[in-house]
Amino acid sequence: MLYSVTILRYNPERQPQPSYVTYRVEAEPHERVLDILVKIQSVQDSTLSFRKSCGHGVCGSDAMMINGKNRLACSTLMRDIKGGKLTIEPLPGAPVLRDLIIDTEKFWSKYQHVMPWLVPEEPPPDKERLRARRNISRSRNRPNVFSAEHALMPAPHHGQIKTISARQPFSRHIVLSSIHVIRKRNKDWNA
Predict the structure, then answer these.
(1) Which of 5, 49, 103, 143 shows a CA-CA span of 20 to 30 A to 12?
(2) DSSP string covering 49-65, please?
(3) Domain limits at 173?
(4) Which helix (H) or strand (E) holds 162?
């Protein structure tokens, strides 16, 4: 199917304001939005800039606005894009460095401040840390959902819980609970 892909482009070295550029791209239903961006960059416009890392919906580096919703480009399939039109914009909540790349410095400094990881009380051993079997099942019930996509979203208000997360593999309640716990630990999250 032929798609019309409109991307908000911005290069501060060459243009004072962002502008939309439209590309025509042939795509299969099983392809991801990330695949389409790579196609555009490889075939049509090598100056297109965006982040990608794991490509499996874990890291959050390819979070962006896809048809008006915060989504991961690696997890959004083309079959879910209705009407053959796709609009891609940088993720809101952070300054745009270039095209779809946002400045994540503020995010990472707050991430370090919050420390959303386990901190052992004892010094590191010479070899790997072995975990007790009883603790393994507890940690498996806590998926890693802390990605830039969720951290840069505006804080949800009462009544918005059902629409805030686009991540399908995890319960939206778990995602929101994780966000609230982390934001509670750092009261100036949106400062």
Answers:
(1) 5
(2) ----SSSSSSS-TTEEE
(3) 105-185
(4) none
For residues 45 and 82, membership in a common domain is answered with yes
Do 35 and 75 form a contact (C-beta atoms < 8 A)?
no
For residue range 101-121, list pLDDT tens digits in order. 998 888 778 878 887 777 778
Counted residue by residue, the chain has a size of 191
Helix (H, G, I), strand (E, B) or coil at 146: coil
pLDDT of residue 36: 94
Residue 126 CB contacts under 8 Å (≥ 6 apart), including other chains: none
Residue 191 lies in a domain: no
E strand or H helix at 107, and its extent?
helix 105-114
Tell if the pTM clears 0.70, that is, is over it. Answer: no
113 and 139: one domain? yes
Query: Is residue 72 domain-shared with residue 122, that is, in the same domain?
Result: no
Through-space distance between the first and last CA atoms of the chain, rounded to whole angstroms: 43
Q: pLDDT higher for 98 or 173?
A: 98
Q: Are 93 and 154 in contact (CB under 8 A)?
A: yes
